[in-house]
# Entry
Amino acid sequence: MTPTQPGIESADAESADAERADAERADTGNVDIEKAATDRRRILLVLGLATAVTVFTATVPLLRDWFDLRVYYGAVNTWVHHGGRLYDYRVPGTTYGFTYPPFAAVGMLPMALVGLHTAIALCLLLNLAALSAVLYILVGPLLRRYGWFGVALALCCLALLESVRDTFSFGQVNLLLLALVLGDAWLLSTGRGRWAGVGIGLAAAVKLTPALFIGLLLLARRPRAAGLATVVAAAATAAAAWVAPDASRFYWTEALWDTNRIGRLAYVSNQSLQGVLARLVEPAEPSRPVWALLVLAVLCVWVWRARRAIADGDWTGAFAVTGLTACLISPITWVHHLVWLLPSFAVLLRHRRLLWVAGCLYAVLCSSVVWLWFDDASGPDGFLGSNTYVWITLGLLLGLPVGQSSAGRRPLRRRVRTMLPAPTPTAPTITPATAQPGREDSFSATGNGSDPDLAGGCGAGVEGRGGSSEPTASTRPAARKPQSSSERAS
# Structure
């Protein structure tokens, strides 16, 4: 036998280790090079897309020149610095003035301390922050999966959406209100419902339309959240009445009921049921009883769809159908108000089979197609084309896939703990659950396996007898009623 040579073996081992280290460094270097190339391609793609979005936004739909912000700024400045009445102000050369409740004006008082251009810059920053919050709440996990690249693509895509770009370009408050309302949805869906209702209450004090979400809280049997939202809205309104009693008196007794202050009902930008009726009978006034019947029908559909979402713990779906309903039943729903459709897209994106639907709807809502009938909305083509966004909103209200998946969502109400059946004297010989893989799969599929209370109870009982931690055939709890789908929601 050849004698062992420790020195030679040690040298061979060191050589092998060195070769492995070199191979690992080479692999790491290749990965780094590939990652750098991917990052460069992504940066170029984002820059190209951002350039295309900028050119499109600046040329095709034409900027709105922060018209609504100029209304807010002029009304607040006239009210504070010139002793004028808040609701008497009109933008020079137009008939447009301040139309929101007095609390909105009180919230805008800081604009009286800065110049117009500073107010525009602050408005852009606030809207960008609100849009970021909306994205985080609706598709946060999806964006985290793709990092900065996903966020950049999402922002570019949203910048093309007509309602979003008009909100920025008009200097509107829609995204801020949407962020407030969805903040409550996030609190409820994550089990932090103690302060849920504050955002809805503040939004309802700024505009009346978000008050419908208080009704959603009542449907969900969340009286504390509904009460908190009502108290916050009432307190904000009362505070505004204390600060501006004359303006409050005028608004609640006169301005609120004068729809002419807001704009012409038949104007093509009014994508509500009232707008459909107004364009259909123009120049006559739309029938209020017919409108009331349509509103009642839409509310009935809303209750049906919202209850279905609530029963399955689908807060995103419940808030989505409520936003759609608010757009339909409001007397005036300008195109830039349709940011309330964003939660509906979040619902569509969690179903892969509906991605093509989301893509088609997105393309239409980017197209400004309704403005083709700006001058004349008569005839069958005018009836269909000028109300395109209304048909989309109605279609989403009727067909949005809400309440079809409970995976990963917190239930709205605490479920009743399943009682364990007591063994009977005539029970057959108990066999371990591990001998029944089929039933174990069924138990896990129902979601009971993730219930800490139920799991803890079963485990403690079995371990106390010195047996396996798996429940036995006679002590295994019956599976809860499965939901309508096992598809996971994002």
